[in-house]
Amino acid sequence: MTDITSGYAASKGAAHAQLDRARLDPELYNEDQLPTTAAERTWNWLSISALWVGMVVCIPTYLLASYLIGAGMSWDQAVLTILAANAIVLIPMVLVGHAGTKYGIPFPVLLRASFGPVGAKIPAVARGIVACGWFGIQTWVGGSAIFVIVNKLTGGALAGEALPLLGISLGEFVCFLAFWGLHLYFIKNGTESIRWLETYAAPFLLAMGLALLAWAYSAAGGFGEMLSTPSAFDVGQPKEGQFWAVFWPSLTGMIGYWATLALNIPDFTRHARSQKDQLVGQMVGLPIPMALFAFIASAVTSATVVIFGEAIWDPVQLSERMGGSAVIIALCALIVATLTTNLAANVVAPAHGFANLAPSKINLKRGGYITAAIGIAMFPWILVNHIVGWLIAYSALLGPIAGVMLADYYLLRRTRLEVADLFKSNGIYAGHNGTNWAGVLALVIGILPNLPGFLAGVGLTDGTSPFFAMIYTYAWFVGLFVAGAAYLLLSKMVNR
Question: What is the DSSP string of 360-385?
């Protein structure tokens, strides 16, 4: 295996070779999909770390700890579960990111090596649809913060009855659209504007998180009872001996949270100056800030029991209860946090994915606009109530995609790609009529073991056997390893 920490100089030849466009299929590329040039490699490890901090500090991350504590974990068990999940997902994140840095190509183009130029559209769009759902959820959360601010400043002028069909008030919908419109500015100005926002927002967001922690400690005279509350799985507690039954599906769900980025991380690492920058940047920016933010969520919520007499997990509700100018400051921080997460995690990936459907007609900007439109159409204010089940459900889809990509790039091709052929309909990656059926079939095979558990989980069947229920508990792991093994076997049978 190629040393993934090798410097930029060792790999820049393949990434920066000038492609002869006359030999490329014009239907398979646009300017946004061609390999990045030396001038576009501006991201150092601090830039990538800042990108991750900007994505990590958001309301859904804050709420993850609440789910685990609600399931019976103590605060330290919840934080360690989140830390473990992110340490695990960091592995495919760095491995897949290697291809972006080495060859300067985005996620949908990398997919062509294992699925073919036509077949790659399937996993690219699947990843894009998941991101559209998250885009809508995050936009709804940010819009809710705007609604609270404006409603507070106007004495409740935006309050109203829920509208027919939408199920939310006109004021809530208008604030949602306002925050949605803010995203369009950054979509219009491209990836570099997102990097600029992430770089300057990261220290602000960390400072605001620590300030919130300090406020809670001071106001409560300590963090209250929650941090000393024993786990519900301890001896003599209500769920004694059930820890592992809760831990494994929780770990899978937490992995599923960033399994999306584990696929399309090349969309960002293609801008990295070196493999060292992408490796160090991700190691510094993902696991520790994620665990730190989970601790802040747990500690602040425990303090609210003392301050307000009840546990308040929703940071929007907490900001509203704080009173005074603190409300505006806290909610503005939430808006910035949500915007930085949404742009990086939920716009760039689907924009590339939709552009890959027709690269000559859809560029990155138009793909972003399509993402924004689908995000509204998915009624995110309803979807937000089903996050936990959804995390495990889509991890059953994304795990197999990662398995195929990793098996192809590392075990089959040993990190060697012919970049020009990724943009040719009749190149070495074309498979049969543009589809590498080994990749497509391996994806299906990787999904199948999790299908009974998924159908039961979403209520389409009455239940499933204990065996398939257990498999679904490890959905991401099962899908990754089954699909990867199937791909290696099918590659020898199908692509002879």
Answer: TT--HHHHHHHHHHHHHHT-HHHHGG
